[in-house]
Design goal:
Mean pLDDT: 89
Shape: globular
Number of strands: 9
Distance between the termini: 51 Å
Strand content: 15-25%
Radius of gyration: 21 Å
Strand order of the largest sheet: 4-5-9-6-7-8
Number of domains: 2
Largest sheet: 6 strands, antiparallel
Low-confidence stretches: 1-26
Structural class: alpha+beta
C-alpha cells in the first residue's frame, strides 16, 4: 500500500510540474530537424545536413542533370561524411576532406577547394557524368566508380534517403521537404538569400518587397527553389516559404494550403529585432 501511495504521490508531483510549466508561457526549444517524405516513407536530417543536401542537389539542378545524379551524390555524401563538411579524414584517407571526403592527393583539388561544398559537388558530378550509363547502374556501382572507396557496398545502404531527399530537392515531389525549427535567432536579409540562391542556381528573376523575396519560377524548378529555401531557413533567417498553393512556416514546420501562386516562390524573412 505504501509503495502505491508513494508512486501516486510521485505521479502527482510530476503532473503538477508539467501543469506549472505548461502555464508558464515559456517557449521551449524544439529538436530541430528536416524531413523528406516521399512514397509513404520519411527520412530525417539535421538542418545542417539538409542544407548540405540542398547545396549538392541544387548544383545538379543547375547543371541540368537528372534526379538520379542527385540521388547517387546524396547517398555517397551520407556514407562518406554523414552530409557534414568534415575538415578531417580517416585512416584509409588521412587527407580526405569535405562532403565527399575527396583526397587532394588523388587529384580532387586542394584542401581548400574540396572543403567548398559547391566545388566538391561539381567535382563529384564531373566524375559521375563520365561513367557510362550511370543512370542505369545501381547506386553502389556508380558511386564506387567515382569514389574508389575501401567499402564499396556501403553506398547501397543510403539509397532510400538519397532518393527521398533528391526527389524533394530537385522538385520532383512537391511539398515533400519540411523543417521543424526554433524561432529565428537573427533577422533575415533578402539580398543575402538571393545571393546564396544565385550562387547555386544562377541568375534569377527576383524582386524584394519589404521583408519578402519573390523569385519567378514554375513547375518542379519552383519546388526545388522552395525546398532549398526551407532547407536553409535555419541559417538564412527565413520564416515562411510559399509556392503553388502551399505555404511552409517556421512555426508549424509544415506545408499547408494557401493562395500562393504557381508562378513565383515567396520567401518571407525573419524581421529585424528577433534574437
Amino acid at each position: 500500500m505504501s509503495v502505491l501511495l508513494l508512486a501516486g504521490a510521485g505521479a502527482a508531483v510530476v503532473a503538477l510540474y508539467v501543469l506549472i510549466l505548461a502555464g508558464s508561457g515559456e517557449d521551449r526549444p524544439v529538436r530541430e530537424s528536416c524531413t523528406a517524405s516521399v512514397d509513404d516513407s520519411s527520412w530525417q536530417l539535421t538542418p545542417e545536413q539538409a542544407a548540405n543536401a540542398a547545396t549538392i542537389t541544387s548544383v545538379a539542378v543547375a547543371r541540368g542533370l537528372p534526379p538520379r545524379a542527385a540521388s547517387i551524390a546524396l547517398a555517397t555524401a551520407v556514407q562518406e561524411s554523414g552530409l557534414r563538411n568534415l575538415n578531417y579524414g580517416d585512416e584509409a584517407g588521412p587527407d580526405s576532406r569535405g562532403l565527399f571526403q575527396q583526397r587532394p592527393s588523388s587529384g580532387w583539388g586542394t584542401q581548400e577547394q574540396v572543403m567548398d561544398p559547391v566545388y566538391a559537388a561539381n567535382a563529384f558530378f564531373d566524375a559521375l557524368v563520365k561513367v557510362e550509363g550511370y543512370q542505369d547502374l545501381p547506386i553502389t556501382v556508380a558511386a564506387q566508380t567515382v569514389q574508389r572507396s575501401a567499402y564499396p557496398d556501403a553506398y547501397a545502404d543510403h539509397e532510400p534517403e538519397g532518393r527521398a531527399f533528391a526527389s524533394a530537392l530537385t522538385g520532383q515531389s512537391p511539398a515533400a521537404l519540411t523543417c521543424v525549427l526554433n524561432p529565428a535567432a537573427v533577422p533575415g536579409n533578402p539580398q543575402t538569400i538571393l545571393a546564396a540562391m544565385e550562387a547555386l542556381y544562377g541568375t534569377q528573376q527576383a524582386a524584394v518587397l519589404g521583408d519578402v523575396l519573390l523569385v519567378g519560377a514554375s513547375s518542379g524548378y519552383g519546388w526545388s527553389l522552395a525546398h532549398w529555401a526551407v532547407a536553409n531557413a535555419a541559417t538564412l533567417g527565413i520564416n515562411e516559404v510559399s509556392y503553388d498553393s502551399k505555404t511552409w512556416t517556421r512555426g508549424s514546420g509544415e506545408w499547408t494550403a494557401s493562395d500562393a501562386p504557381d508562378s513565383q516562390v515567396a520567401i518571407h524573412i525573419a524581421p529585424v529585432g528577433v534574437g
